[in-house]
Amino acid sequence: MFKRIQSFIAVYETRSFSKAAEQLFISQPTVSVHIKQLELQLNTTLFERNGRTELVPTTNARKFYQHALHLLDDWQNATDSLDLAEERPRTTVRIGASQTSATVLLPKIFAQIKKDEFNTIDFKIEMHNSEEILAGVLNHQFDFGIIEKPITHDFITRNAIAGDQLVLAGNLDSTVWLVREKGSGVYHYTQQYFKQHNIVPDHFLTIANNDIIVKMLAQNVGKSIVSIQALPESVPYKKLDDAFNRQFYIIHHEHSNQSAIKNEIARFIQIARNL
Q: Is residue 195 part of a domain?
């Protein structure tokens, strides 16, 4: 029953048997069987096909989804409450961090984490742009993410944790723009700046790495919109208006079962807000 509930939640959230299978690390036929068994047990149809690929939840599926989340939470709470004689296994916390947050915010957060916490928790950190992290959290690739682009999703909880100021930096007379790739938070604000000032760049380099951009600015190559926190003192810059004072966010799936993961998310939010 538990596995059927897991498969149902995954299919409901991804709208796909194949994506649900990838998320759960099982085969697609197994997911299909779980859904068919659950439909027989509940005596109702849970999904209908819209075209060749997309699955559309029925009214009963939407009703059952909330109950399924509670069932999974109750199961996790029950297992967490057991007084096991054996030592509890280590918990792995998978974090997706945007490039700016990874370099200017994460080190400050980890400096506040007590050393003994590393005895029971393994942290795995990957650096991606904001949209990639959102997708990773939705697909359960990451337990939570730290981003700076103001994006979210139906199944995502977003918490503002810290502020950041973007500036126009580098050779301000240059006609060459150093621009982050699409999907990144900085790209979002760079396009906002272009629109605000009616700029159509004649020359630009697309660079999917903040560190490279900052190092090129330090060599007097071009100009760019960057976080003031990532900028060396030697690089000249110009302050921008309040529209470029942005927030860092912690995002996580609203259905996070493990209590250890929930505790770490709450801890990171608290630490970041107190920095």
A: yes
